[in-house]
Specification:
The structure holds two protein chains of two kinds. By secondary structure, chain A is an alpha/beta fold. Chain A has a domain at about 60-75 and about 90-110 and about 120-130. Chain A has five helices and five strands; from the N terminus they run E-H-E-H-E-H-E-H-E-H. Chain A has a five-stranded parallel β-sheet with strand order 2-1-3-4-5, sandwiched between helices. In chain A, helix 3 (about 90-100) links the parallel strand 3 and strand 4 (about 105-110). In chain A, helix 2 (about 60-70) packs parallel to helix 3 (about 90-100). The longest helix of chain A is centred in the last third of the chain and has 14 residues, at about 135-145. Chain A is globular, with a radius of gyration of 15 Å. Chain A starts with about 30 loop residues before the first strand and ends with a helix. Chain B is mainly alpha-helical. Chain B has a single domain, classed as Four Helix Bundle (Hemerythrin (Met), subunit A) (Up-down Bundle), CATH 1.20.120.160. In chain B, helix 3 (about 40-65) runs antiparallel to helix 4, helix 3 (about 40-65) runs antiparallel to helix 6 (about 110-140) and helix 4 runs antiparallel to helix 5. Classes of the chains: A alpha/beta, B mainly alpha. The interface of A and B includes residues 38 and 50 of A. Chain A: Pfam families: Response_reg. Chain A: InterPro entries: CheY-like_superfamily (IPR011006), Sig_transdc_resp-reg_receiver (IPR001789), ST_Response_Regulator (IPR052048). Chain A: It comes from Durio zibethinus. Chain A: This is Two-component response regulator ARR22-like. Chain A: Keywords: Phosphoprotein.
Chain lengths: ~150, ~150
């Protein structure tokens, strides 16, 4: 799979060998990553930047909520379930209550379907299992392109 | 050893890590994220994994030494370790964590202690493997070659 080289104005070529059509990387989509693990933060940030996305990172749900409360807007919010101070489910509920105009996607390492369901019920648009992969980001980019 | 030989040694070594289950596809994704703008990305992420793991293994040891074990706390630490090991593709560590979490759920002390030993062992193995791999990379670079993808 060809990944954009980080510049947000790069266009990806359509592959001619039948592989999936590339998403246009000339987007100005912004992403907020909320996760307390520095390893995950670094990984997700890098993954997303490769797709030309502008990334901001916070380490807990409260910081995510506060950012949005003070007027920051994001096209996509990637939110971990397990975080100190305020966890992903609570933060999601607050963000939805605030009426943020973002795709809110849970990223969790909880494998039980019950826990995933509970997280979804907090108001997520989607919930993925960690780790984030290129396929998942591609999928989300397609969703963002649809909505914007 | 010349560059070509070093490169072959590196490629074979890396392939063996996949073959023996130390690494999985997630590590490949990690390598694909590295580029000229971020040439040390993999080393940096793996270093974070070392830090995370060592801290968590210490916490787990302490938690399982308590008179009255707080299994929720133990589970939380294992869960984190499972998360970081799966994120970098350290498959064998991740697998032990899955078994470990089952024992936590059952509140099985013996099972937990056994898993703690196992996970420490697997972590120590994969750490050595990574360090060897990075050393091989360094040798290639020092000899003026480039790291094969």
């Amino acid at each position: 799979m060809v990944l954009g080289k980080g510049a947000s104005s790069s266009l990806s070529m359509n592959k001619v060998d039948g592989a999936e059509e590339m998403v246009d990387n000339s987007n100005n989509f912004t992403v907020l990553v909320a996760d307390d693990d520095p390893l995950i933060q670094k990984l997700h940030e890098m993954h997303l930047k490769k797709f030309g996305l502008k990334v901001q990172v916070v380490e807990n749900g409260k910081k995510a909520v506060d950012l949005c409360h003070f007027g920051a807007t994001f096209n996509l919010i990637l939110i971990d379930k397990e975080m100190p101070v305020m966890d992903g489910a609570e933060a999601t509920k607050e963000l939805q209550a605030m009426g943020v105009n973002s795709l809110i996607v849970g990223v969790t390492s909880r494998d039980s379907p019950y826990e995933k369901q509970a997280f979804m019920e907090a108001g997520l648009d989607y919930c993925f299992e960690k780790p984030l992969t290129a396929d998942k980001i591609n999928f989300l980019l397609q969703e963002l392109n649809k909505n914007n | 050893m010349d560059v070509l030989q070093l490169q072959k040694q590196f490629v074979d070594y890396r392939a063996s890590l996949y073959h023996e289950g130390f690494l999985d596809e997630q590590f490949t994704q990690l390598q694909e994220l590295q580029d000229e703008n971020n040439p040390d990305f993999v080393v940096e992420v793996v270093s974070l994994f070392f830090e995370d793991s060592e801290r968590l293994l210490n916490e787990l040891t302490k938690a399982l030494e308590q008179q009255s074990i707080d299994f929720k706390r133990v589970d939380a630490h294992v869960h984190q370790l499972k998360g970081s090991s799966s994120s970098i593709g350290a498959q064998r560590v991740q697998k032990v964590c899955i078994a470990f979490r089952n024992y936590c759920e059952e509140q099985n002390i013996e099972g937990c202690l056994k898993c703690l030993q196992q996970v420490k062992h697997e972590y120590s193995l994969v750490k050595t493997k990574f360090e060897t791999m990075f050393q091989l990379e360094q040798q290639i670079l020092t000899a003026g070659g480039s790291i094969p993808v």
